Predict the 3D structure of the following.
Amino acid sequence: QVQLVESRGGLVQPGGSLTLSCAASGRSGSSDTIAWFRQAPGKEYEFVSFIRWSGGIPGYADSVKGRFTISKNNAKNTVYLQMNNLKPEDTAVYYCAWHTARVILSNTRTRSAYRYWGQGTQVTVSS
């Protein structure tokens, strides 16, 4: 069993930055795959980014590529999502998702591939 605790989001002005964290307790292994998804009001869940605990090249949605960076701290069992140049369309509830096995590349952007989910944290981008 993996428990995920996300950091608090917040209200950010357009062009601003915010970093979210996702701390895992219970276990973490080299095969784990971790992702961030988001859900804007009235919209479906949207994949944001993924990273493998073992390292490698992370993946990003086109909508955030070049602005968001996913990273991890193995010692702290924590994954981060650094969000720069935020836009109003980034407003959403952001969720950390964790799978304690390797997710094949073609499934890394699929919600159902991840077994454990954080509680979600609201990010609002507005002036």
User: Anything to note?
Assistant: The mean pLDDT is 95. The CA atoms of residues 12 and 125 lie 5 Å apart.
